[in-house]
Design a protein that fits this description.
Blueprint: E1 13-16, H1 32-44, E2 49-51, H2 67-73, E3 81-85, H3 89-100, E4 107-113, H4 116-123, H5 127-143, E5 147-153, H6 167-180, E6 184-189, H7 198-211, E7 218-222, H8 229-239, E8 243-246, E9 259-260, E10 263-264, H9 285-295, H10 303-317
Parallel strand pairs: 1-2, 1-8, 2-3, 3-4, 4-5, 5-6, 6-7
Antiparallel strand pairs: 9-10
Helix pairs in contact: 1-10, 7-8, 9-10
Length: 328
Amino acid sequence: MIESYLKLPASITVGEQIVGEGFATEPNFIPTETKVWLVRELINAGSKFIQVSNLVNPRFEPQFRDCEELYRQIEHPEGVTFVTPTPDMRALQKAIELKKAGHGPDIVSFPIATTDAFNKSSLGKTTEEQWKVLEPMVTVAHDAGLKINGYIAGVWTCVRTGTKIPRDIAYKFADKWVSLGADMIAHSEGTTGGEPTPSEVYEYFSRVLDKYPDPKFHKFHLHDAYGWGLACYIAAMHAGVTLLDTCLGGARAGPALTIMDRVPIVTAEVKPPDQVVSRTGLIPSEDFVSLCDAMGIQTGLDVEKILNLGRWVEQIVGRRLWSARLRW
């Protein structure tokens, strides 16, 4: 069998994104009660690494306006890691306040993109300006007992322009995060304008892991526009990656959110984008977990429970999503 030629890990961790990035561009607000239920059911299905919402300013992403309340309501069992993006000091302070109150994330994710165009579109700053925002946050987070995920967006391609990123750029960003004291690095690709091939993924992570060999230090986060995602994840595992993000249904299948509950978002462009149904979401959890199970790679997840949760998520958002496994 083909797996006999691959150096695949015996076990991996799957980072679930549905209650965070997965719901980010839903045009209707997902009730807090629903999000609490999903977190509970994910834990019941064996999830150990979950992104919970986002502490970004809700003026920009109103789906996350209940982040703090969500943390107050969810239980935090031993052995389960919660991670939440905190793009600026204001967001980090909220994470610290939650932690002091006995809630909140274990890991705060500090995002930065490899190009000015990408960074400005998502964070409103150039890359250099964003580094200046993030650098002092490292000490503040560590002093508060929080771990840091240094998030590199656009490892292979600039989402905004579609241009290819020179290979050494992402390596330099990884070096920068190490020098700042990050506890882990997320290597992310948004795929607009192109998706990395499995060979590119293998080459990249082989070099990264040669320099920083601890597999727990690295996380792969891939949006799957072309449908090559599963092959890319196998290539990453072959290179030694053991923490990989997925999302129930491969959700986040739309352009940047410009309206919620039929109310325009004040920070959105004046002209809303065409309502084109395109695949821009993460790799479906249902497909990846089923594939790992079939290949004998342990995820700690109950496949049938994950599949059933995928069906529930389709009911929650009111449409079919991108999992091929749910169609059979």
